[in-house]
Amino acid sequence: MKKLITCALLGVLAAGGISTARAEVPEGELNSLYIRPEVKLPAPALAFPNYPIVDDCTTEFGDEVTNACVTQEKERALVLQPAWDEYQDSDKIACQEDVTHIRHIQLYKNLAYCLDKRRYDAWLKKHPNGQ
Predict the structure, then answer these.
(1) Which of 30, 57, 77, 90 is the most exposed place for a label (fewest CB within 10 A)?
(2) Under 8 Å between Cβ of 106 and 78
(3) How many beta carbons lie within 10 A of that of residue 122, not counting itself?
(4) What is the pLDDT of residues 13-53, one digit of tens each?
């Protein structure tokens, strides 16, 4: 039950989040931005990733976008980190590779989505009728 609640909570955060900063910057705008090429991201590892949130979120679109992104990413990291050990090691590595390769500014959001999608897909393989 705890895993199901954690998965549901991560899904809610990945889909929308709870930040008041979101009202100022449309989610679609944040979804369309990429990390600057000079920002170095950590290599995928089994340990929880420590992404440089401020560097990841800093764009040429100003402080409002940066602040909204930083606020949301810090919230997502706080939710994702305690649940980290519940994920499969192969999913941790694969999802980190995906998000660092794509380089969207919302790394933790995309990481949580990827992990939960892979977990759900694995569950569907074992329970094709949804039971």
Answers:
(1) 90
(2) no
(3) 12
(4) 444 444 444 447 888 888 899 999 999 999 999 999 999 99
- Report how far residue 34's alpha carbon sits from residue 4's, in angstroms, rounded to the nearest whole number: 31
**pTM of the complete model:** 0.79
What are 104's strand-pairing partners? 34
DSSP 32: T
Three-class DSSP category at 34: strand
| Of 131, 92, 113, 126, nearest in space to 7 by CA | 113
Q: Tokens 């393989």 correspond to what residue?
A: 125
Over range 124-131, report the average pLDDT.
Answer: 83
> 34 phi and psi, to 5 degrees?
-120, 160
- Written as one letter, the residue type at 81 is Q
CB 110 within 8 A of CB 126: no
Please write the tens of the pLDDT for every residue from 82-121: 999 999 999 999 999 999 999 999 999 999 999 999 999 9
Encoded tokens for 57: 């979120």
Taking the chain, what is the end-to-end CA distance rounded to the nearest angstrom? 15
How do the domains of the chain map onto residue ranges? 2-126
